[in-house]
Design a protein that fits this description.
alpha/beta, 190 residues, RNA_MeTrfase_C_dom, methyltransferase activity, Alpha/beta knot, 8 helices, transferase, eight-stranded mixed β-sheet, tRNA_m1G_MTases_N, 23% strand
């Protein structure tokens, strides 16, 4: 089923370092490809990379441009297909404004984090809302040591953390994004 009312954003800013200071994180090629893949597999409407540093944006845009070029498409048609979902923006506000313009309504902002917040929603609750198709959703993933708590509190919803078999839940953003998309959008039901 097409989930074109669900979008993903990877935030390089604002992010936190291990001491809780606000920083800008660097782009990694793996994040582009390994989040775009599940975004395509679960047929989301788009994958945004939020990066405000121009030097980083040049690197990201070069990669996007190459994989969308005829040469890139011939070299790896699958990569071409996933990179078509990727959009580069300076700020989260730009992402929200673009979605409002294109979709005619503001998306529900859904924060993700390894920490639990008092107002966290379960996967079942969010999946039910997504399946009703009455709203658009923007799933927000942090880099570094996550999205700052003050910003998390501004989101409409905060998704409960990904829990494994034990208390340890320090996954890469790539792993977390794939697991979360699967739990929310998969045809497999546990």
């Amino acid at each position: 089923m097409k989930n074109d009312h669900v979008f993903v954003a990877l935030l390089h800013y604002p992010a936190m370092d291990r001491e809780g200071k606000i920083i800008v994180t660097s782009f990694t090629t793996m994040d582009l490809h390994d989040i775009a893949r599940p975004a395509r597999a679960y047929e989301v409407g788009g994958f945004y990379i939020v990066q405000p540093v121009d030097g980083q944006r040049i690197v990201i845009q070069r990669q996007i441009s190459y994989w969308l070029s005829e040469e890139g498409r011939r070299a790896n048609p699958t990569r071409y297909e996933i990179v078509r979902l990727v959009r580069l923006k300076y700020t989260l506000d730009e992402v929200v404004e673009e979605l409002k313009r294109e979709r005619g309504r503001r998306p529900v902002l859904v924060g993700t984090d390894a920490r639990k917040y008092p107002n966290s929603v379960s996967y079942a609750e969010l999946r039910d809302r997504i399946e009703r198709r009455e709203e658009d959703f923007l799933l927000l993933f942090g880099t570094g040591y996550g999205i700052p708590p003050d910003m998390m509190r501004t989101f409409d919803l905060i998704l409960e953390p990904v829990y494994g078999a034990a208390d340890w839940n320090h996954l890469s953003v790539r792993n977390a994004a794939a697991i979360i998309l699967d739990r929310l959008l998969s045809r497999n039901r546990c």
